[in-house]
What does this fold into?
Amino acid sequence: MTPAPPGSRFGNRVTARRWASLLRRLGHRVVITEEYGGEPCDALVALHARRSAGSVRRFHRLHPERPLILALTGTDVYGDIHTSVTAQQSLQLATRIVVLQPAALEEVPRALRRKCRVIIQSARKPAGTVIPRTRTFDVVVLAHLRPVKDPFLTEVATRYLPASSRIAVLHYGGARNGGMAARARHASATNARYAWRGEVPRWKALRALARSRVLVLTSKLEGGANVVTEAIAASVPVISTRISGSRGLLGKDYPGYFPVGDAGALRQLLLRAESDRRFYAMLKARVKRLAPIVKPKREEQAWRALLAES
It folds into this structure.
């Protein structure tokens, strides 16, 4: 159960579709819905503690003895579960709570952590051979145009780079409103280093990621970003805001962090990644070392174990 509607390419729907496919491979019949209306089922997996609260209550009332698995999103972990009574009620009713990276456990009330399971989202490297361009140092941003993603920070950071720099930013992601889209089009027209490509099929965005030199994540918060695990699978170095959601995946001492909202610090990291071969090699080695945590078999085994104990 996900509050994201059919056809959406936003994170919750992407996660729901991927988990549905995984659970079918494990032999289960799966239905994705925006709201639980009392349909017969053996278990409920609900994304988003606050927005799915009504469905969580309904399922618990009808089937108090059945598994009710609550998957926490970024807005849950770093917002709603601390401030929303309905989100807190969802935590209480859940038989198991799934978080997408280990640092998220610190945000869950201590008394409820026994119900938590960490399941890092898996990813596969795009098929075929992908060769980065040599004429430019391609930086990819995979983020919808939403305030929580701080989506224009990379454009701002690269607007006044030295002429000698080969950095080029390719930004893939849909706009939530016309104002955001207009700003992205204006940025593309006035910054020769920045190109907004809009919303594209997932396979195309992942090919662009695999072909890039660096993934930049500028989010103010993330529960456990798909794009980070996808970059790990593709062995693409990540430059990210220093947020808990990234530290939980990349490690506390990962060298590619910058402060939230700091375009100057991001600019310096990008220039260093472009010009300092040792630094770039270190980033790449750290990401390659993390490859086992995003293996599909690992995630599949985690879900099998979770359902067996629920």
